[in-house]
Design brief:
Helix content: 40-55%
Number of helices: 16
CATH topology of the largest domain: Rossmann fold
CATH class of the largest domain: Alpha Beta
CATH architecture of the largest domain: 3-Layer(aba) Sandwich
Structural class: alpha/beta
Order of helices and strands: HHHHHHEHHHHHEHEHEEHEHEEHEE
Length: 383
Protein backbone atom coordinates (compact mmCIF):
# COMPACT_ATOMS: atom_id res chain seq x y z
CA UNK A 1 0.00 0.00 0.00
CA UNK A 2 1.45 3.30 -1.03
CA UNK A 3 1.92 6.36 1.08
CA UNK A 4 -0.99 8.21 -0.53
CA UNK A 5 -3.49 5.54 0.46
CA UNK A 6 -2.20 5.27 4.04
CA UNK A 7 -2.33 8.81 5.40
CA UNK A 8 -4.14 10.73 2.69
CA UNK A 9 -1.30 13.08 1.71
CA UNK A 10 0.18 13.67 -1.72
CA UNK A 11 3.47 15.16 -0.56
CA UNK A 12 2.40 18.70 -1.49
CA UNK A 13 -1.19 18.91 -0.30
CA UNK A 14 -3.83 16.95 1.57
CA UNK A 15 -6.52 15.18 -0.42
CA UNK A 16 -9.22 16.13 2.11
CA UNK A 17 -8.27 19.67 3.07
CA UNK A 18 -6.19 20.63 -0.01
CA UNK A 19 -3.44 21.69 2.37
CA UNK A 20 -0.54 19.30 2.89
CA UNK A 21 -0.05 19.71 6.64
CA UNK A 22 -3.67 20.00 7.79
CA UNK A 23 -4.96 16.43 8.05
CA UNK A 24 -4.69 14.93 11.54
CA UNK A 25 -2.22 12.12 10.73
CA UNK A 26 0.13 14.62 9.10
CA UNK A 27 0.07 16.88 12.18
CA UNK A 28 1.57 14.14 14.32
CA UNK A 29 5.23 14.84 14.91
CA UNK A 30 7.56 12.69 12.87
CA UNK A 31 9.68 11.58 15.80
CA UNK A 32 6.57 10.29 17.63
CA UNK A 33 5.64 7.99 14.77
CA UNK A 34 9.09 6.41 14.91
CA UNK A 35 8.43 5.23 18.44
CA UNK A 36 7.19 1.59 18.31
CA UNK A 37 4.47 2.18 20.91
CA UNK A 38 3.21 5.24 19.07
CA UNK A 39 3.22 3.28 15.83
CA UNK A 40 0.90 0.67 17.34
CA UNK A 41 -1.49 3.36 18.64
CA UNK A 42 -1.52 5.24 15.36
CA UNK A 43 -2.00 2.01 13.45
CA UNK A 44 -5.17 1.30 15.43
CA UNK A 45 -6.49 4.85 15.13
CA UNK A 46 -5.50 5.93 11.63
CA UNK A 47 -4.48 2.70 9.90
CA UNK A 48 -0.84 3.76 10.02
CA UNK A 49 1.72 1.09 9.05
CA UNK A 50 3.45 -0.73 11.86
CA UNK A 51 6.78 -0.18 10.18
CA UNK A 52 8.64 3.04 9.62
CA UNK A 53 7.10 5.48 7.19
CA UNK A 54 8.62 5.73 3.71
CA UNK A 55 11.24 8.39 3.20
CA UNK A 56 8.89 10.34 0.95
CA UNK A 57 6.67 11.00 3.97
CA UNK A 58 9.52 12.52 5.99
CA UNK A 59 10.77 14.93 3.38
CA UNK A 60 9.01 17.76 5.19
CA UNK A 61 9.91 17.06 8.79
CA UNK A 62 8.71 20.35 10.23
CA UNK A 63 6.57 19.29 13.15
CA UNK A 64 3.31 21.22 13.38
CA UNK A 65 2.70 19.56 16.70
CA UNK A 66 5.86 20.99 18.21
CA UNK A 67 5.09 24.45 16.78
CA UNK A 68 1.61 24.36 18.30
CA UNK A 69 3.12 23.30 21.61
CA UNK A 70 5.52 26.24 21.55
CA UNK A 71 2.66 28.59 20.77
CA UNK A 72 0.64 27.24 23.67
CA UNK A 73 3.65 27.64 25.95
CA UNK A 74 4.12 31.22 24.77
CA UNK A 75 0.44 32.00 25.35
CA UNK A 76 0.54 30.45 28.82
CA UNK A 77 3.69 32.40 29.66
CA UNK A 78 2.12 35.66 28.56
CA UNK A 79 -1.05 34.99 30.56
CA UNK A 80 0.96 34.14 33.66
CA UNK A 81 3.20 37.18 33.27
CA UNK A 82 0.23 39.55 32.79
CA UNK A 83 -1.52 38.12 35.83
CA UNK A 84 1.65 38.39 37.89
CA UNK A 85 2.37 41.98 36.83
CA UNK A 86 -1.25 43.05 37.46
CA UNK A 87 -1.25 41.39 40.88
CA UNK A 88 2.03 43.02 41.88
CA UNK A 89 0.75 46.39 40.63
CA UNK A 90 -2.43 46.10 42.70
CA UNK A 91 -0.45 45.08 45.77
CA UNK A 92 1.85 48.07 45.36
CA UNK A 93 -1.17 50.39 45.05
CA UNK A 94 -3.03 49.03 48.04
CA UNK A 95 -0.39 48.95 50.74
CA UNK A 96 -0.62 51.07 53.87
CA UNK A 97 0.09 54.43 52.21
CA UNK A 98 -3.52 55.53 51.83
CA UNK A 99 -4.89 53.13 49.24
CA UNK A 100 -7.56 50.51 49.68
CA UNK A 101 -8.88 48.00 47.19
CA UNK A 102 -12.62 47.59 46.71
CA UNK A 103 -12.24 43.88 47.48
CA UNK A 104 -10.32 44.65 50.71
CA UNK A 105 -13.08 46.06 52.98
CA UNK A 106 -12.17 47.96 56.11
CA UNK A 107 -13.96 47.65 59.39
CA UNK A 108 -16.37 50.42 60.34
CA UNK A 109 -13.94 52.02 62.80
CA UNK A 110 -11.05 51.83 60.36
CA UNK A 111 -13.20 53.27 57.59
CA UNK A 112 -14.32 56.14 59.81
CA UNK A 113 -10.72 56.89 60.75
CA UNK A 114 -9.71 56.80 57.10
CA UNK A 115 -12.60 58.94 55.85
CA UNK A 116 -12.13 61.65 58.49
CA UNK A 117 -8.62 62.51 57.41
CA UNK A 118 -8.20 65.95 55.89
CA UNK A 119 -6.55 64.76 52.71
CA UNK A 120 -6.69 61.39 51.00
CA UNK A 121 -5.44 59.99 47.75
CA UNK A 122 -6.62 56.89 45.92
CA UNK A 123 -4.29 57.48 43.00
CA UNK A 124 -0.89 55.89 42.43
CA UNK A 125 2.21 57.77 41.37
CA UNK A 126 1.90 56.79 37.72
CA UNK A 127 -1.70 58.01 37.53
CA UNK A 128 -0.76 61.27 39.26
CA UNK A 129 1.87 61.95 36.63
CA UNK A 130 -0.63 61.20 33.87
CA UNK A 131 -3.17 63.60 35.36
CA UNK A 132 -0.50 66.28 35.70
CA UNK A 133 0.33 65.88 32.02
CA UNK A 134 -3.39 66.16 31.23
CA UNK A 135 -3.65 69.42 33.19
CA UNK A 136 -0.63 70.81 31.36
CA UNK A 137 -2.10 69.76 28.00
CA UNK A 138 -5.40 71.46 28.85
CA UNK A 139 -3.66 74.72 29.73
CA UNK A 140 -1.60 74.61 26.53
CA UNK A 141 -4.73 73.87 24.44
CA UNK A 142 -6.82 76.51 26.21
CA UNK A 143 -4.53 79.34 27.38
CA UNK A 144 -7.52 81.32 28.62
CA UNK A 145 -8.25 78.59 31.19
CA UNK A 146 -5.04 79.34 33.08
CA UNK A 147 -6.58 82.47 34.60
CA UNK A 148 -9.54 80.83 36.32
CA UNK A 149 -7.50 77.74 37.21
CA UNK A 150 -5.13 79.86 39.27
CA UNK A 151 -7.58 82.14 41.09
CA UNK A 152 -10.76 81.29 42.99
CA UNK A 153 -12.44 84.61 42.19
CA UNK A 154 -11.88 84.19 38.46
CA UNK A 155 -13.07 80.59 38.71
CA UNK A 156 -16.32 81.61 40.40
CA UNK A 157 -16.76 84.41 37.89
CA UNK A 158 -16.47 81.87 35.08
CA UNK A 159 -18.87 79.23 36.47
CA UNK A 160 -21.31 81.73 37.98
CA UNK A 161 -21.33 84.81 35.74
CA UNK A 162 -19.98 83.73 32.36
CA UNK A 163 -21.71 80.33 32.56
CA UNK A 164 -25.03 79.22 34.03
CA UNK A 165 -23.78 76.31 36.13
CA UNK A 166 -24.54 77.81 39.55
CA UNK A 167 -27.82 79.42 38.48
CA UNK A 168 -29.05 76.16 36.95
CA UNK A 169 -28.12 74.16 40.07
CA UNK A 170 -30.04 76.58 42.29
CA UNK A 171 -33.26 75.68 40.45
CA UNK A 172 -33.32 72.28 42.15
CA UNK A 173 -35.11 71.71 45.45
CA UNK A 174 -32.11 70.28 47.25
CA UNK A 175 -33.88 69.65 50.55
CA UNK A 176 -36.36 67.43 48.73
CA UNK A 177 -33.56 65.57 46.94
CA UNK A 178 -31.35 64.90 49.97
CA UNK A 179 -32.38 62.99 53.11
CA UNK A 180 -31.75 64.20 56.64
CA UNK A 181 -28.21 63.80 57.99
CA UNK A 182 -27.00 62.88 54.50
CA UNK A 183 -23.55 61.79 53.43
CA UNK A 184 -23.08 63.10 49.89
CA UNK A 185 -20.39 62.43 47.30
CA UNK A 186 -19.63 65.12 44.72
CA UNK A 187 -17.93 63.10 42.00
CA UNK A 188 -15.73 65.23 39.75
CA UNK A 189 -16.12 68.26 42.02
CA UNK A 190 -13.60 70.45 40.17
CA UNK A 191 -13.03 73.74 41.96
CA UNK A 192 -15.71 72.90 44.52
CA UNK A 193 -18.54 75.38 43.95
CA UNK A 194 -21.15 72.62 44.31
CA UNK A 195 -19.37 71.29 47.40
CA UNK A 196 -19.64 74.72 49.01
CA UNK A 197 -23.31 74.93 48.06
CA UNK A 198 -24.05 71.52 49.58
CA UNK A 199 -22.32 72.33 52.87
CA UNK A 200 -24.74 75.22 53.38
CA UNK A 201 -27.72 72.82 53.41
CA UNK A 202 -28.78 71.95 56.95
CA UNK A 203 -29.71 68.35 56.17
CA UNK A 204 -26.21 67.51 54.84
CA UNK A 205 -23.82 66.06 57.42
CA UNK A 206 -20.76 65.31 55.26
CA UNK A 207 -19.65 66.01 51.69
CA UNK A 208 -16.94 63.93 50.03
CA UNK A 209 -15.19 66.08 47.41
CA UNK A 210 -13.75 63.69 44.81
CA UNK A 211 -11.61 64.88 41.91
CA UNK A 212 -8.47 63.78 40.11
CA UNK A 213 -6.85 67.24 40.09
CA UNK A 214 -4.66 67.91 43.09
CA UNK A 215 -4.56 71.60 42.17
CA UNK A 216 -8.36 71.87 42.35
CA UNK A 217 -8.58 70.09 45.69
CA UNK A 218 -5.69 71.72 47.51
CA UNK A 219 -5.66 75.22 46.02
CA UNK A 220 -9.01 76.22 44.55
CA UNK A 221 -11.48 74.32 46.72
CA UNK A 222 -10.54 75.92 50.10
CA UNK A 223 -10.65 79.38 48.55
CA UNK A 224 -13.97 78.74 46.79
CA UNK A 225 -15.56 77.38 49.98
CA UNK A 226 -14.44 80.47 51.85
CA UNK A 227 -15.73 82.86 49.19
CA UNK A 228 -19.11 81.07 49.03
CA UNK A 229 -19.45 80.98 52.85
CA UNK A 230 -19.39 77.20 52.98
CA UNK A 231 -18.62 74.98 55.95
CA UNK A 232 -15.19 73.37 55.51
CA UNK A 233 -15.66 71.16 58.59
CA UNK A 234 -18.21 69.12 56.60
CA UNK A 235 -15.83 68.43 53.71
CA UNK A 236 -13.64 65.36 53.21
CA UNK A 237 -11.24 65.81 50.28
CA UNK A 238 -10.46 62.70 48.22
CA UNK A 239 -8.10 62.65 45.26
CA UNK A 240 -9.34 59.88 43.00
CA UNK A 241 -10.94 58.76 39.76
CA UNK A 242 -14.53 57.92 38.83
CA UNK A 243 -13.99 54.24 39.48
CA UNK A 244 -13.48 52.26 41.50
CA UNK A 245 -15.07 54.21 44.36
CA UNK A 246 -13.33 52.96 47.47
CA UNK A 247 -16.42 53.13 49.64
CA UNK A 248 -18.16 50.22 51.28
CA UNK A 249 -21.38 49.00 49.72
CA UNK A 250 -24.44 51.12 50.58
CA UNK A 251 -22.33 53.78 52.30
CA UNK A 252 -23.63 57.00 50.67
CA UNK A 253 -27.02 58.67 50.88
CA UNK A 254 -26.60 60.67 47.67
CA UNK A 255 -24.18 61.22 44.80
CA UNK A 256 -24.10 64.43 42.79
CA UNK A 257 -22.18 65.19 39.60
CA UNK A 258 -22.13 68.54 37.84
CA UNK A 259 -21.01 68.46 34.22
CA UNK A 260 -18.68 65.57 35.03
CA UNK A 261 -20.04 62.17 33.96
CA UNK A 262 -19.77 62.93 30.25
CA UNK A 263 -16.00 62.55 30.72
CA UNK A 264 -16.49 58.84 31.50
CA UNK A 265 -15.12 56.41 28.93
CA UNK A 266 -17.85 53.92 29.86
CA UNK A 267 -20.89 55.63 31.31
CA UNK A 268 -22.69 52.44 32.31
CA UNK A 269 -19.79 51.05 34.35
CA UNK A 270 -19.44 54.34 36.26
CA UNK A 271 -23.17 54.39 37.03
CA UNK A 272 -23.04 50.78 38.22
CA UNK A 273 -20.19 51.66 40.58
CA UNK A 274 -22.17 54.64 41.90
CA UNK A 275 -25.16 52.36 42.39
CA UNK A 276 -23.04 50.00 44.50
CA UNK A 277 -21.91 52.77 46.84
CA UNK A 278 -25.44 54.17 47.35
CA UNK A 279 -27.83 53.02 50.04
CA UNK A 280 -31.18 51.49 49.03
CA UNK A 281 -33.36 54.41 48.00
CA UNK A 282 -30.33 56.68 47.62
CA UNK A 283 -30.37 59.56 45.16
CA UNK A 284 -28.21 60.30 42.14
CA UNK A 285 -28.44 63.91 40.94
CA UNK A 286 -26.75 64.60 37.60
CA UNK A 287 -26.45 68.32 36.92
CA UNK A 288 -25.63 70.53 33.98
CA UNK A 289 -25.42 67.96 31.20
CA UNK A 290 -26.25 68.90 27.62
CA UNK A 291 -27.60 65.80 25.83
CA UNK A 292 -29.10 66.14 22.38
CA UNK A 293 -32.33 64.40 21.39
CA UNK A 294 -31.85 61.42 19.07
CA UNK A 295 -32.07 63.14 15.68
CA UNK A 296 -30.05 66.15 16.82
CA UNK A 297 -27.32 63.82 18.10
CA UNK A 298 -27.25 62.06 14.73
CA UNK A 299 -26.80 65.40 12.99
CA UNK A 300 -23.99 66.38 15.38
CA UNK A 301 -22.22 63.04 14.78
CA UNK A 302 -22.44 63.58 11.02
CA UNK A 303 -21.08 67.10 11.44
CA UNK A 304 -18.17 65.78 13.51
CA UNK A 305 -17.43 63.16 10.85
CA UNK A 306 -17.49 65.88 8.19
CA UNK A 307 -14.98 67.92 10.20
CA UNK A 308 -12.67 64.90 10.45
CA UNK A 309 -12.87 64.35 6.68
CA UNK A 310 -12.25 68.04 6.11
CA UNK A 311 -9.13 67.96 8.28
CA UNK A 312 -7.92 64.91 6.40
CA UNK A 313 -8.41 66.61 3.06
CA UNK A 314 -6.68 69.74 4.32
CA UNK A 315 -3.80 67.68 5.82
CA UNK A 316 -4.62 68.97 9.27
CA UNK A 317 -5.55 65.66 10.83
CA UNK A 318 -4.25 65.13 14.37
CA UNK A 319 -4.69 62.23 16.80
CA UNK A 320 -6.85 64.49 18.96
CA UNK A 321 -9.55 64.85 16.31
CA UNK A 322 -13.05 63.72 17.36
CA UNK A 323 -13.48 59.96 17.67
CA UNK A 324 -16.94 58.73 16.78
CA UNK A 325 -18.47 55.73 18.54
CA UNK A 326 -21.87 54.12 18.87
CA UNK A 327 -22.61 55.74 22.21
CA UNK A 328 -20.96 59.13 21.97
CA UNK A 329 -18.16 61.00 20.32
CA UNK A 330 -15.51 63.40 21.60
CA UNK A 331 -16.88 66.84 20.87
CA UNK A 332 -14.00 68.32 22.87
CA UNK A 333 -11.15 65.84 22.31
CA UNK A 334 -8.61 67.75 24.40
CA UNK A 335 -10.75 67.52 27.53
CA UNK A 336 -12.21 64.10 26.75
CA UNK A 337 -15.81 65.39 26.63
CA UNK A 338 -18.17 62.79 25.21
CA UNK A 339 -21.50 63.70 23.68
CA UNK A 340 -23.96 61.12 24.98
CA UNK A 341 -27.48 61.55 23.55
CA UNK A 342 -30.60 61.68 25.70
CA UNK A 343 -31.67 58.13 24.88
CA UNK A 344 -28.27 56.80 25.95
CA UNK A 345 -28.44 58.60 29.31
CA UNK A 346 -31.84 57.06 29.99
CA UNK A 347 -30.72 53.61 28.86
CA UNK A 348 -27.51 53.69 30.94
CA UNK A 349 -29.32 54.86 34.08
CA UNK A 350 -31.94 52.12 33.83
CA UNK A 351 -29.31 49.47 33.07
CA UNK A 352 -27.36 50.52 36.19
CA UNK A 353 -30.42 50.04 38.41
CA UNK A 354 -31.74 53.60 38.71
CA UNK A 355 -35.26 54.86 38.23
CA UNK A 356 -35.47 58.36 36.74
CA UNK A 357 -37.73 60.51 38.90
CA UNK A 358 -37.46 63.70 36.88
CA UNK A 359 -35.58 65.28 34.01
CA UNK A 360 -35.41 69.06 34.38
CA UNK A 361 -34.78 71.24 31.37
CA UNK A 362 -33.46 74.47 32.86
CA UNK A 363 -33.75 76.38 29.60
CA UNK A 364 -30.33 77.88 30.30
CA UNK A 365 -27.44 77.38 27.88
CA UNK A 366 -23.98 76.69 29.19
CA UNK A 367 -22.75 80.20 28.36
CA UNK A 368 -25.01 83.11 29.22
CA UNK A 369 -26.37 84.96 26.22
CA UNK A 370 -25.60 82.15 23.78
CA UNK A 371 -27.96 79.88 21.83
CA UNK A 372 -26.38 76.58 22.80
CA UNK A 373 -27.97 73.46 24.20
CA UNK A 374 -29.86 73.90 27.50
CA UNK A 375 -28.49 72.45 30.72
CA UNK A 376 -30.33 69.30 31.82
CA UNK A 377 -30.67 67.84 35.34
CA UNK A 378 -31.43 64.16 36.06
CA UNK A 379 -32.83 63.23 39.47
CA UNK A 380 -32.65 59.46 39.98
CA UNK A 381 -33.29 56.99 42.78
CA UNK A 382 -31.90 53.53 43.39
CA UNK A 383 -34.56 51.17 42.10
Amino acid sequence: MGTDEIHGCRRTRCVNTKVWKRCLPCRVSWHATRNPIWRRVLHKLFDFPKTTMPDTFWRRRRSMWSIATLRRMRSAWRSWFNAWSMNSHCVSLHKTDGYRSSHMPLSTDARNREMTRDDQSWIGEQTIRGITQFDQAMISAYPESDAYLQGAREYLRTVGETCNYIAAAEKLDWKACLPHDAKVLDIGCGGGWLVAMLTRIDTVRMVYALDSSRHFLRTLLPQVVELMNGHPEKIVVIEGLFQPLLFDDAHLDAVVASSALHHADNLESVLIEIRRALKPGGRLVILNETPWPGWRHLVSVMAAAARVVRDLLLHRYRPLSPSISSSGYLYDPKLGDRDYPMWYWEKALKAAGFSIESVMDTGMPTVKGSKGRPLIHFVCRVA
